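Hey,

The postdoc asked me to send both predictions to you directly instead of through the lab channel. I've kept everything plain text so nothing gets mangled by the mail client. Protein one:
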Amino acid sequence: MGEKDCLFCRIGRKEIPAKLVYEDPEIFAFEDINPQAPEHILICPRKHLVSLREAEAADAALLGRILLVGAQLAKERKRADFRTVFNNGPEVGQSVFHLHLHVLGGRAMGWPPG
C-alpha cells in the first residue's frame, strides 16, 4: 500500500476525519479511535514510512521530533506518567502500515506489555 491509499496519510491530508490534537508541516497527531488507555494518541510523520525498518539516518531529526511531540502532548494533558510505543510489523501488533507512535496514559500498565 502506498501513500495514496494509506489510512494515516489520508487522515494527515484530512481526507478522512479524525480528532486531530497536533499538526505541523512534518507531523500530525490524533486520538486513537480504539483507545487502549484513557489517553491514547497516535503521532505520525507526514512522510510515508511503513515502520522504523524503512527509516534512514536522514529521518533521525523527524523521529526525534515525533518523540518530543509525544512528550509535549502528554504534558499538556497533565500525564506525568505515560508510555510510548512504536510497533514494527504485524507480529507485534502493527495494523496500519504507516509509522506511528502510540502515546498512552491514564491507567496503570504492566510489564512486559502484550
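Protein two:
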Amino acid sequence: MLIAQKKEQENIAEYILYLFQIEDIIRSFKFNIDDIMEVFVLPNLPDRSFEGQYRKWYQEIISEMKAAKLEKKGHIDRVMEVFRELVFLHNTLHTMAKESKYKTLCESAAGYVPEYRSKSDMKNNHDVEVIIHAMYMKLQLRIRGKEITAETEEAFDAMRIQIAFLVREYHKMKSGDYNFIQN
C-alpha cells in the first residue's frame, strides 16, 4: 500500500507493474485475505501498526477484482485509468509537430511491439499497454531467474526507453508542469 502510493507519485510505470504483481498475488492466494496477510504481508511489514491499513487496502483490491470478474486475468479500474491517461498522452505526443524525440523512440520500439503482441493475448491492445505488459514479462523472467537473450534484451530496452520518456512526460502533465503548446 505505501509502496504503491510512493510508486504512483514517482514512477507511474512502476506503479502499474507493482499493481500487476499485487493482482497476481491475490489470484495466487485465491482471494483469501487472511492467507495474503499471514503469508505475504505480515512477514514483510517492519511495523505491525500498519496491519489494519494493509488489510483494508488488499481487501479493496480483492473486492474490486471480484466485482469486475478478474479472477483469472485482467486489471482493476485504477490500472486501466492510468493506461487511458498514458494512451491519451502518447497520442498527443505522437501527433505534436515539436515532439520528434518521442516519435523517434516510438519508431525504435515499433519493430518489437507487433512481435510481443502476437505472442501474447493482446491483439487489440494499444502499443503503450503492450509495452508495459512486456516490461512485466521481463520482470517476471528476472524474478524466476530465466535467461534473457541479447535479442530479447534489445527489444525490451527499446520499449523501456519509450515508456521511460512517456512516464517522464506523464508526471509533468499530472503535476501541471506540462505545456502542450511549448513542449
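Summary for protein two, as requested: The chain has a mean pLDDT of 92.

Thanks,
C.
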